[in-house]
């Protein structure tokens, strides 16, 4: 997935649409890390219900699936968001109607640039190969996600 050096909002949306389709997913989010307030700021989304948009615009480190992936700097997966009791998902996340979900940190070396998340309508355990592929895709765009 080729992106220009300075991607526009439309470029990021196309990237996310292509990526989610390649995983057979119906939702996706891409957030940029803002070190000033330690929040993840929404760059692009696909399939997120309008009522959740205010909630996902700015996510604190450690909160929700994306915030946990950013804080841990590791993939965070939920086989079924609808029945999960781990406490990782934020209240309201069930409104996405997503079950299988995966979020990975977007890293440039050791530097956190953001998070990339995908979701399926059905309960799903992502394979190690799928997790690694999403990590690799996230790393491939990390330098373009750095704050300008």
From TrEMBL:
<dbReference type="InterPro" id="IPR029016">
    <property type="entry name" value="GAF-like_dom_sf"/>
</dbReference>
<dbReference type="Pfam" id="PF13185">
    <property type="entry name" value="GAF_2"/>
</dbReference>
<protein>
    <submittedName>
        <fullName>GAF domain-containing protein</fullName>
    </submittedName>
</protein>
<dbReference type="InterPro" id="IPR003018">
    <property type="entry name" value="GAF"/>
</dbReference>
<feature type="domain" description="GAF">
    <location>
        <begin position="16"/>
        <end position="142"/>
    </location>
</feature>
